[in-house]
Amino acid sequence: MTAYRLDKTPIHIGPGTAATPIDGFEFTGEGFGAYIEAHCTPDEPGRLAMVEHSPERWGAWECHTEGDEVVIMLTGKAEFIQEIDGEERRTVVSPGEAVINPKGVWHSADVIEPFSAVYLTPCPGTKHRPRS
Fold it and tell me: Coil, helix or strand for 36?
């Protein structure tokens, strides 16, 4: 048995019960691209389980086209924002709480206290746009 730090070695959750640690993962655009190419298929994009730290307001919006994303707050506090039907819907999330970013919904976050969260993300097809 091995323990993994999800902020260093995320785990791909694939079809059925498959779980694959992604050794040497880089939290960059290129790193996510290489992960998608190696582990995801159009029929089964899977989810990437990872921990990310957010010390400040997110500078972009993102949207996942292949499925819902689950965010589980570990430490800190944030206000997650979703654009639904042209309106911003805001939810404050604290440790032990979770939010779901539905498939196709643009979302971002404002940091109330620097936070760490577990993300269960369908990575293929993820889009980004700047936030003003």
Answer: helix
In percent, the amount of the chain with pLDDT more than 70 equals 100
CB 51 within 8 A of CB 6: yes
pLDDT digits (tens, 9 = 90+) for 106-121: 999 999 999 999 999 9
Q: What is the CATH number of the domain that holds 51?
A: 2.60.120.10
Tokens of 78: 């944030």
Tell me which amino acid residue 100 is.
I
Residue 81, amino acid: I
**Residues of the domain holding 93:** 11-130
Domain count across the chain: 1
Say which residues have a Cβ less than 8 Å from residue 7's Cβ, sequence separation at least 6: 50, 51, 52, 53, 116
Q: Is 95 a member of any domain?
A: yes
